[in-house]
Design a protein that fits this description.
By secondary structure, this protein is α/β, with parallel strands linked by helices. The protein has 3 domains: about 1-80 and about 85-105 and about 230-295 and about 395-445, FAD/NAD(P)-binding domain, CATH 3.50.50.60; about 115-210, protoporphyrinogen ix oxidase, domain 3 (Orthogonal Bundle), CATH 1.10.3110; about 300-390, Polyamine Oxidase, Chain A, domain 2. Helix content is about 30%, strand content about 20%. The protein is built from 12 helices and 19 strands. It has helices at about 40-50, 90-100, 135-145, 160-185, 205-210, 230-240, 280-285, 335-340, 360-375, 400-415, 420-425, 430-445; strands at about 1-5, 25-35, 55-60, 70-75, 75-80, 105-110, 115, 120-125, 225, 245-250, 255, 260-265, 270-275, 300-310, 320, 330-335, 345-355, 380-390, 415-420. The strands form 4 sheets. It has an 8-stranded mixed beta sheet with strand order 1-18-14-17-16-15-7-8. Strands 2, 3, 10, 11, 12, 13 and 19 form a 7-stranded mixed beta sheet that branches. Strand 4 and strand 5 form a beta hairpin. Helix 1 (about 40-50) runs parallel beside helix 6 (about 230-240), helix 1 packs parallel to helix 12 (about 430-445) and helix 3 packs across helix 4 (about 160-185). The chain is globular and about 70 Å long. It starts with a strand and ends with a helix. The model is unreliable at about 1-15 and about 20-25 (pLDDT under 50).
């Protein structure tokens, strides 16, 4: 699912390459897990805690576990496959993970996020900080908010919801242009609740009250944790208690027979009691030969550039949003301000529609030019770089996708195949949500 500058692994005792005779030997597992990301490895841990003698096999198509929660170390820089920061709501989940990370330096960070709007840096979220705009634009947003369109019928789309909740000024200055750069789709095509609890809603009372409050981070990710060794440390924690050989890398599931209860890989056929898959739901339906409407499962893709420079840049900033459509990127993050460092270390994200292709060298040059235009770099020298394409990245949650997702998940669950995670559930969720979901599923099963 990714295209990256990343060497292929050779396997290790913890996650060796899959084995089996060329003819495909028949094996048995209580649980076959498809995908060795947070969801898959989380489920493997939860299930083994309850069933220590169970046979669990985790199939991973890539050459190493982690999914998108992977880390690249290059020339002294520590980068992820885009920023993966844990926002814990459940203390038990955080404690459970930390217990599996002895000796790891894990920082707790109070988020500093800004929005670059017409040369100004506005505190995030935009809708609660419109008083930081020029006076005429502040008044425009306030008037449009007060006289926003209303109606007895509920809004029909995410885009319409923005106008109804926050008015034209706030929507068109930031929320629409930014989210259309990110999702690479018209917001009127997305479901009203496409971002769920992750969208920072605000009403007039919130906005007015915020004008007199101290500047404290707001939103679901106001505080986050991050290990000095990068997001891969969370994956290492999830691998820590799994027996050697549990995870088979370079071994994709290529077919799943619902009637026979078997999973086939290029190396073997495995008979299962149940399957838990974090693969994209459209992919799972295909390998199960289940009729489905693939057209409803649309998404964007994101090209991430990790960039290391010769010296420090902006300080006291963790990430910044860029709604300006003339800039190629929608977000920039500072690893050096999160984990500490004397050289500027950035991740830069570019959204594109499904099916788009990237001229990586040309886009890297464009990114550097846009960073200079926005004064993020001046005479800095680029000394190291890496890129990765996340595909899919953000799923498009629509009424059609919600209906087809519910239908497919119910159909597969009736045959002991359970689809979980952001892509397995075709949803928007956090890494902690993946662990909570798989813990609940393990308990239920």
């Amino acid at each position: 699912m990714t295209v990256a500058e990343h060497p292929k692994g050779t396997g290790s005792p913890a996650h060796p390459k899959g084995t089996g005779s060329p003819g495909g030997s028949l094996a048995h597992a209580n649980v076959v897990i498809i995908g060795a990301g947070v969801s898959g490895l989380g489920y493997a841990n939860w299930w083994r805690e309850a069933h220590p003698d169970a046979k669990v096999i985790v199939l991973e198509a890539e050459s190493e576990p982690g999914g998108y929660c992977r880390t690249v170390v290059r020339d002294g820089f520590v980068w992820d496959y885009s920023g993966h920061f844990f926002h814990f709501k459940d203390p038990a989940i955080e404690a459970w993970l930390r217990a599996r990370m002895p000796g790891q330096d894990i920082g707790t960070v109070e988020r500093i996020a800004k929005i670059r709007y017409a040369g100004r840096d506005i505190d995030f979220p935009f809708q609660k900080h419109i008083h930081q705009l020029p006076q005429d634009e502040f008044i425009e947003c306030l008037v449009e908010l007060y006289f926003r369109p209303t109606g007895e019928a509920p809004p029909r789309s995410f885009g319409e919801m923005l106008y109804r909740k926050l008015g034209k000024g706030i929507t068109e200055k930031f929320l629409r242009p930014y989210n259309e750069k990110l999702y690479a789709i018209d917001l009127d095509k997305l479901d009203v609740d496409a971002m769920g609890r992750f969208f920072p809603h605000a009403d007039i009372a919130d906005i007015i009250a915020n004008m007199r409050k101290e500047k404290t981070p707001q939103g679901y990710n106001a505080t986050f944790t991050y290990p000095a060794g990068g997001a891969i440390q969370y994956i290492n924690a999830l691998l820590r208690d799994l027996p050697a050989g549990t995870v088979a890398v370079d071994e994709p599931a290529v077919a799943l027979d619902l009637a026979a209860h078997t999973v086939t890989t290029p190396r073997r056929t495995i008979r299962f009691d149940h399957v838990v898959s974090s693969a994209p739901l459209r992919t799972l339906a295909k390998i199960c030969s289940v009729p489905h409407d693939a057209s409803v499962f649309t998404s964007n893709k994101v090209l991430v550039f990790n960039l290391g420079f010769d010296r420090k840049g902006l300080r006291d900033l963790h990430w910044m949003y860029f709604p300006d459509p003339s800039l190629v990127f929608y977000r920039v993050g500072w690893y050096d301000n999160i984990i500490g460092g004397d050289r500027q270390s950035l991740y830069v994200e570019i959204g594109a529609p499904d099916g788009a292709t990237f001229d990586v060298d040309a886009l890297r040059a464009r990114v550097l030019a846009d960073l200079k235009r926005e004064r993020i770099i001046t005479d800095h020298q680029l000394v190291a770089h890496h890129h990765v394409v996340l595909d899919p990245a953000y799923v498009h949650i629509t009424k059609s996708s919600l209906a087809e997702t519910a239908r497919l998940k119910a159909l597969l669950a009736a045959r002991d195949v359970h689809s979980v995670g952001r892509y397995g559930g075709w949803t928007y969720c956090s890494i902690e949500d993946n662990l909570l979901e798989t813990r609940a599923l393990a308990t239920r099963l």
